[in-house]
Amino acid sequence: MSPKDYSEFELADFLLDDAFVQWVKTPTPDGDVFWKNWRRQHPDREWVLEEARGLVQGLYVRRDPLPAGSFRRIQGHLDGVYAALEEPAAPSEAPGRRPSRWLGWAAAAVVALLLLAAGAWYRAGRAGGGTEYATGYGQTRTVTLPDGSRVLLNANSRLRTPARWPEGARREVWLEGEAFFTVTKQSGRPDGGTEGARFVVHTGQVDVEVLGTRFNVTNRRGQTTVTLNEGKVKLEEGNLDRAVIMQPGELVRLGGNGAALVRKKVNPVQYSAWTQNNYLFDDTPLAEIAQRIEDTYGVPVVLERPGLAERTFSATIPTKNLDVLLLALSEAFGMEIEKNEKEIVFK
């Protein structure tokens, strides 16, 4: 492995270092030993190494590796983004009305997007006698509930809780959008009842009941999707003949009519990767990716070319910069992408 001094490397330096990128893409025993020792010697820099490693792995599309030139262009774009972050922010001008190629957007716009995402806001007010937390487009927010359970709200989502949870009463929350729940176990009522141990997420279509578990819930466009990472959950809906009991590694999607549209085994990490600021796509259709972009960033996506909706994409991409995802898609499928004030067009 190269004797180069990596102790002062920043994220962009790692991404542009041939030896590092080659090791991530094609690990070797010597390389593994080198980086294991490097981590031990520089524990304060390990986070930079891991972030760079994750980005390189994400930009290397597993089934169809990006050409070297494409990979370089994506790395160069990331380099420009992080370099721009180090410059003082310049006053922004009002956007023009003329559509422009998204690759021509100024770095200042990228910086503004990143700062907005980092400054996720929430609104805690009285709503139906409870407390409401909300996120805007491109934002996430962690909420700790009174019982110690943790909820990570994804972008464009809203969570409402009662003003208080009386002792012995079941714990209830109401969700619009998407959230990842880590629920604490409770012992129940002093009289031995179990009602106080119940934790219920209401989505409008489905009630998701748990005791103690980790799971992801998405409630958008009249459908509720639940993915179970660990533990056990029960889904109840008025039109279902019986409750649906989920096991770890399962996904269940229910429509507004209560019919079980989908029940299948999945890799739950794929559906909760957003909690680590990543998209994990695994043979994901472009139509689904387009919907994810709209849900997260509030920008409609138009698939102009016939057959694009069914094309699939496999990669891990950071969520904090939409431009990186668009560039990876453009390079992987050899398509043009236009981005204007109203929409993103895949050509």
Automatic annotation (TrEMBL):
GO terms assigned for molecular function: sigma factor antagonist activity
UniProt keyword S-adenosyl-L-methionine present: no
Location of the Protein FecR C-terminal domain: 279-345
Alphabetical keyword list: Membrane, Transmembrane, Transmembrane helix
Transmembrane feature ranges: 102-122
Highest rank taxon of the organism: Bacteria
Name of the protein in its database record: Anti-sigma factor
Organism expressing this protein natively: uncultured Cytophagales bacterium
UniProt domain FecR protein: residue ranges: 132-234
Entry-linked Pfam families: FecR (PF04773), FecR_C (PF16344)
